[in-house]
Design brief:
Structural class: alpha/beta
Number of helices: 9
Oligomer: single chain
Helix content: 40-55%
Distance between the termini: 42 Å
């Protein structure tokens, strides 16, 4: 697939996988729109891109999903329809269900689910109009099965599958493809930035995260998934075996997962 001059919108582009994707797509000649809450970091990413003159910065706070249509509408009028939308932005948590404030679950749903839905809803009509488009949705292994300490996060990631797999079925004949990405551990700051039971930043990494895939490697896998029009990809280490164990040996999996605290 030739990505030259394709209009690619990436959320969560100020760090981690989103940042790596911005660099990869810029080298491929794509016209980028990069978003996150952190304007200064987006400026840094833009400056480091191979073609910074082809990069637009649009700050978005996914938690404030009600404002997204108002922000994005004028951008689409200026740049036109989007070819590839990558819903990568998100946040994680580390807290027991019994301890966490309800606001933690609410924040997980707003940031990880409603933000992606709201942006997609604004971009989708243009894709339907042009009879082509690719939507990439960053899920997780937690979108395939529940993991201790991540109840709200897992709930939001599960919800992404229900929504975007429905969107895929409804819009296949409109030339729109949907890729669900379910990584295991990737070496990003997602665990450090995760929320604790009181919705405060955790400031602590996980051993698995530190040994995870390099974000650039994950970005390569996503781009290949787009090129091959895959429905879903997983990537990581041995933790990805959990998908198959949970499906074929559910009792064994339940025993294994309850010790992953």
């Amino acid at each position: 697939m030739d990505f030259k001059n394709k209009k690619v919108w990436i959320t969560g582009a100020s760090s981690g996988i989103g940042e790596a994707l911005a660099y990869k797509f810029s080298k491929l000649g794509a016209r980028l729109i990069i978003s996150s809450r952190r304007f200064a970091e987006l400026q840094r990413v833009k400056a480091a891109c191979a073609n910074p003159d082809l990069v637009d910065i649009v700050p978005i706070d996914l938690e404030k999903y009600e404002d997204i249509a108002q922000i994005v509408g004028p951008v689409l009028k200026r740049v036109g329809n989007i070819d590839i939308l990558i819903n990568n932005g998100g946040a994680s948590q580390r807290a027991l269900v019994v301890d966490e404030d309800l606001k933690v679950v609410e924040k997980m749903m707003k940031i990880n689910f409603m933000g992606a839905v709201a942006l997609t809803k604004v971009v989708l009509p243009g894709m339907i109009e042009q009879k082509r488009g690719h939507i990439v949705c960053m899920s997780s292994l937690a979108g395939k099965f529940g993991i201790p300490l991540r109840s709200g996060y897992a709930a939001a990631k599960h919800a992404l599958h229900g929504f975007f797999e429905t969107l895929r079925a409804e819009n296949h004949d409109n030339g729109i493809r949907v890729l669900m990405v379910c990584p295991g551990y990737v070496n990003t700051n997602v665990a450090i930035n995760a929320l604790d039971a009181k919705a405060e930043k955790r400031n602590q990494n996980d051993p698995g995260q530190e040994k995870g895939l390099d974000p650039a490697e994950m970005a390569d896998k996503i781009i290949k998934g787009i090129e091959k029009e895959k429905l879903e990809i997983t990537a990581g280490g041995g933790e990805t075996n959990g998908i198959w164990v949970s499906r074929f040996f559910p009792r064994l999996f339940a025993k294994i997962i309850r010790n992953k605290k």
